[in-house]
Specification:
The complex is a heterodimer of chains A (about 230) and B (about 220).
Chain A (H helix, E strand, L loop, with lengths): L4 H19 L15 H27 L3 H32 L8 H22 L3 H29 L20 H44 L1
Helix pairs in contact in A: 1-6, 2-3, 2-5, 2-6, 3-4, 3-6, 4-5
Chain B lengths: L1 H19 L2 H21 L8 H21 L7 H10 L2 H31 L6 H28 L4 H28 L7 H27 L1
Helix pairs in contact in B: 1-5, 2-3, 2-5, 3-5, 3-6, 3-7, 5-6, 5-8, 6-7, 6-8, 7-8
The chains are: A mainly alpha (about 230), B mainly alpha (about 220).
Chain lengths: ~230, ~220
């Protein structure tokens, strides 16, 4: 078994994130207290989700340009991983909200946006299941994927900036430096973002491979059956 | 210029078609009227109990469901053979744009009639009627551009009405949030400049949806 360099990097970064994330020094802030460690897990989930859903749309565009099944496989597996990351982001976020804001679900534009985003991608999966023909399923779901992503962007990036939010750096101009990340946090946060994103990429790649193998096996079975 | 002429001809075709089989239009009008009446009976005689956020939300929910039902048939009512015939005659861009414009007109009509009837039956707490109507117009155009594309997708998947709702609701929510916010401002009679931000965002979302529909529809049409 041969691991390419980025997979090794992913493993190393995630080990680093988990160990330093739970044991490393963090600033002592009121209300947040130790829950600030969730920064290493909650925030990278969203970065990863946006990245992976972006790659899903990229492959959907690719499918419309050159209709290869491999492009469709990549698009749908990326959507799966995106939903997984979004779900984990919601769960970690809800736990964090319970501790700091006092409720599992608060009326916040980012939370609502995330929930709607999940709905959109679940609808994408429902649409896929409702289409029988493989080529048509690939093309129509690619169209919906691009269409939905185009409306998801204002939802996730523009609307939260128009309204006040409980999230830091919202309701105004959210530059990243407004996050009062101190150097201890940065030291773990940036590797965490990269590590989780790589994990998402890895999961997607494995899943896409599995789908390809399943297709090949199916074709073989059909050939055997037709004999 | 050629595209514009094509769109004009196609819109005329849609209107003539609708006029010939009036039951669809009448059906939609009846749909919105009976929904309003159901809300009225639901709240009983004391529609004074209806506070303004409820009034607002109810109005937009009625409009949303009417719009979904009205637009859902925009690709379904014509036979496959006839669609193939259009395919040989018109460009896909012309078809999607003409459908969007036609559906905007249809929804505008339904929305204005609905607004009038709703105000008569359930009372009208709106302070700034002009802003509210402009907002209703923006809503009609926005709903039509989003729903027309989704209806095209749902038709390809067997024109299942559940699918139409499932696919369109999440996509339409950002629009709905902004619309409800603007109409709340209009109801409270706030200064119009407060709503400009939201209206510009709404127009921008509309522009995105239109552009994406324009680019993507040819791929949908091909199949």
């Amino acid at each position: 078994m041969k691991l390419s360099w980025w997979k090794l990097l992913c493993i190393a970064l995630l080990f680093y994130t988990v160990i330093m994330g739970f044991l490393g020094p963090v600033p002592r802030l009121a209300i947040l207290n130790e829950s600030i460690r969730n920064l290493y897990f909650h925030v990278p989930m969203w970065f990863g989700m946006v990245l992976i859903l972006g790659s899903s749309v990229f492959h959907s565009i690719g499918y419309l340009r050159t209709p290869l099944m491999s492009n469709d496989d990549k698009a749908v597996t990326a959507a799966h991983t995106g939903i997984l990351f979004g779900g984990l982001g919601l769960v970690t976020g809800m736990a964090w909200a319970r501790v700091t804001w006092g409720d599992w679900w608060v009326n916040d534009p980012k939370l609502n946006g995330a929930a709607i985003g999940m709905l959109i991608y679940c609808a994408y999966l429902v649409l896929r299941n409702s289409l029988e023909d493989e080529g048509q399923r690939a093309r129509i779901s690619a169209i919906y994927n691009i269409f939905a992503f185009a409306t998801l962007v204002p939802l996730l990036f523009i609307l939260p900036r128009l309204t006040d939010s409980l999230h830091p750096g919202n309701g105004g101009n959210p530059g990243f430096n407004q996050y009062d990340l101190d150097s201890d946090l940065r030291l773990v946060f940036y590797p965490a973002v990269i590590g989780w994103a790589l994990l998402g990429l890895w999961l997607t790649q494995l899943n896409a491979r599995l789908r390809r193998l399943e297709r090949i096996a199916e074709e073989k079975n059909e050939v055997v059956a037709s004999r | 210029m050629h595209l514009l002429q094509e769109i004009a001809v196609l819109i005329r075709k849609e209107i003539v078609l609708e006029w010939r089989q009036r039951y669809a239009l009448n059906g939609m009008l009846l749909y919105i009227v009976s929904t309003v009446l159901i809300c009225y009976f639901g709240f009983g005689q004391n529609s004074a109990a209806l506070n303004s956020p409820t009034w607002n939300t109810l109005f937009w929910i009625i409009l949303l469901f009417t719009a979904v039902n009205a637009v859902a048939k925009s690709f379904g009512q014509e036979r496959a053979a006839r669609l193939l015939y259009y395919y040989t005659l018109a460009s896909p861009q012309g078809i999607i744009l003409s459908k969007i414009v036609y559906n905007s007109l249809l929804l505008l009509l339904l929305a204005v009639v609905g607004y009038g009837f709703y105000s008569v039956i359930l009372g009208n707490p709106v302070e700034d009627n002009l802003l509210f109507l402009v907002n209703v117009g923006l809503g009609a155009v926005g709903f039509s551009s989003t729903l027309t594309m989704v209806s095209g997708i749902a038709t390809k998947a067997g024109n299942n009405s559940v699918l139409m709702a499932v696919l369109s609701f999440p996509v339409i929510i950002p629009m709905l949030i902004l619309l409800i916010r603007i109409s709340k401002n209009a109801m409270d009679g706030l200064d119009r400049s407060i709503s400009y931000d939201e209206m510009i965002t709404l127009l921008a979302i509309n522009a995105i949806v239109l552009a994406v529909s324009y680019i993507l529809f040819p791929y949908l049409w091909k199949s």
